[in-house]
Amino acid sequence: MPKNEPLSTITQFKDAWTHERPDLDPTAVATDLRMQLVARHFADSSNSALADFDLEWWEYDVLSALRRIGKPYICAVNSMNDILPLTSGALTHRLNRLVDRKLVTRRGDDDDRRRVLVKLTSKGLRLVNNAATARFQAAESTVDSLSETDRASLDRILDKLLVNTVDQ
Fold first, then answer.
1. Is 156 a domain residue?
2. Most C-beta atoms within 10 A of its C-beta, which of 24, 34, 132, 167?
3. Looking at the structure, do residues 8 and 32 belong to the same domain, yes or no?
4. Is the pLDDT reported for residue 168 higher than 60?
5. Residues 110, 125: one domain?
């Protein structure tokens, strides 16, 4: 897709609605479309980077949550629910798949038998370290056309939108 094609498509969208329904202001929907297209590009870039490591986004999400905790890369399952906004069933399903791939282990807590602990294996740690490098590079290449000032402005604007749209 040529670089300016999305902009041309959005301009055509706005012009068509303005002509057909002058009572509607297409500006907000055009903003929405821009954000969806950019989000899709970020997602595609990230998914492509993770595919090189045979990782799905959800697998990386769990592994990187454990990696961000720091050594010894272990966390109680119920605490993971605070880090990852998932239902307990969804988290259990994801952990089962990662255990099957030998990327994490799951065991009971010796101090509290009601708790289950999840830990990155050495294989999981190597994989998430390498995948994180690729994931960060993919994100960087997606925003490399923005100056530091542009990035800071965009972050402020997106933060404002997030605060005003979450829980609506």
1. no
2. 132
3. yes
4. no
5. yes
